[in-house]
Every structure is written in C-alpha cells, then in structure tokens.
Write a structure and sequence with these properties.
It contains eight helices and nine strands. It has a domain at 6-35 and 96-205: P-loop containing nucleotide triphosphate hydrolases (Rossmann fold), CATH 3.40.50. It is α/β, with parallel strands linked by helices. It has helices spanning 18-25, 58-66, 85-93, 104-113, 127-137, 142-155, 171-186, 194-205, and strands at residues 6-11, 32-34, 37-39, 53-55, 70-76, 79-84, 97-101, 118-123, 164-167. Helix 1 crosses helix 7 (171-186) and helix 5 (127-137) packs antiparallel against helix 6 (142-155).
C-alpha cells in the first residue's frame, strides 16, 4: 500500500547516540532513507565524505546559504551544519521516509518549513553517562566536552517542542522504540491513500 513520504528528525545532545541509533534502525525499515548533512568541521577519524557528512569549506557553505540550498542550518561549537533541501524533498515526493539527525535549532527550523515532520528527542540516561560517553569517544578536548555538557542541559528545555522522546539507556530497546514510532507514523490515515485502504479491505472481504 502506498504511503505518503515524510520526514523523521532525530535530535539530542552530542553523545546521546543519534548516529548509532539511526544505523541500527535503517536496515530494519524498507524505504527509510538517511539524509546526509553538510558541515564545515573537519572529518573525524573514520568519517567518509558523502556518507557521514558532506565536508565543505566556509566559502562553500556561504554559497549554499545564498542559493537557498538548506532546509536548515546552524552553528555549533564553532562549526556550521546544514541539511541539503533537494535530497529530502525528492525522497519525500517518491513516497520514502527520510530520517536525519540535527541539533535543536535545526529541528525547530524544519518544523516551521515542514509542519508534518516528526520530531524525536533522544536522551542519554543521565548527564553523568553523557559525560562518560563523550570522554570515551575521545574526539573532543576537555573544554569542548564541558561546553557540550552545558549546552546539553539547556537543550532539554526544548523537549516540549518534540512529538516523541526516547531514552537511550539500551541501544536495542531504543532502536525498537524508534522503529515503533516510524511504523506508527506510516499508519496515519493522513499519510495513506484512502482509496487503496478501501480496495484492500474490500478484497479481504471476498
């Protein structure tokens, strides 16, 4: 049955496990497409251009803003991040579900442009656990980790603007919750061809 495409926006503090969760969920759901963001920050060890992010210069990012190529963009800890508009809009037109991870600013920008977007807030079990995860990740200096933790505490105030929340205390359970949310959203009457539902129901009666 054909379902209208829509956007899932996953946000949460840095270190909450957004990318890990998305990677766990994508293989489990047909027609779920990941939207790769553009960023001006340098690649981290193991990150691949065009897969993890589109790594661009400040000049290239400025041009993309001028050309209205972003659904949203924001600056975080000295770097800029943005969601390319064309990929998301094309996949939704094709009837696919698009999933992305962006910060709070970006999610709220998207909500204004795309009111039907589904916003999910991913929480770590505690701030202490978040600190441990950031330290173990080994990708940021101590002062950067402190800034991220301070920023994360403020971000929690915005959870009221989201549709769902998931506490990432166990990856398998968190993945199951996100799968359930996506499947439930796909079952919304407003996202489905009503004629197709009626025809399917009639066939089952014969």
């Amino acid at each position: 049955m054909e379902v209208k495409g829509f956007l899932i926006v996953l946000s949460g503090p840095s270190g909450a496990g957004k990318n890990t969760l998305i990677n766990r969920v994508i293989p489990r759901i047909p027609n779920l497409k990941y939207s790769v963001s553009a960023t001006t920050r340098a690649p981290r060890t193991g990150e691949v251009d065009g897969v993890d992010y589109f790594f661009v210069s400040d000049e290239e990012f400025d041009q993309m803003i001028a050309d209205n190529e972003f659904l949203e963009w924001a600056e975080f800890v000295g770097s800029r991040y943005g969601t390319p508009r064309s990929f998301v809009e094309k996949q939704i037109e094709l009837g696919h579900t698009v999933i992305m991870d962006v910060d709070i600013q970006g999610a709220l920008q998207i909500r204004k442009l795309m009111p039907d977007a589904v916003l999910v807030f991913l929480l770590p079990p505690t701030l202490d656990e978040l600190r441990n995860r950031l330290n173990k990740r080994g990708q940021d200096a101590t002062d950067a980790i402190i800034k991220r933790l301070e920023h994360s505490a403020k971000e929690l105030e915005y959870i009221v603007d989201y549709d769902y929340y998931i506490i990432n205390d166990d990856l398998d359970k968190a993945a199951e919750r996100l799968v359930t949310i996506i499947n439930a959203e796909r079952c919304r009457v407003a996202r489905t061809d009503l004629n197709a539902i009626q025809q399917l129901w009639q066939r089952r009666q014969n």
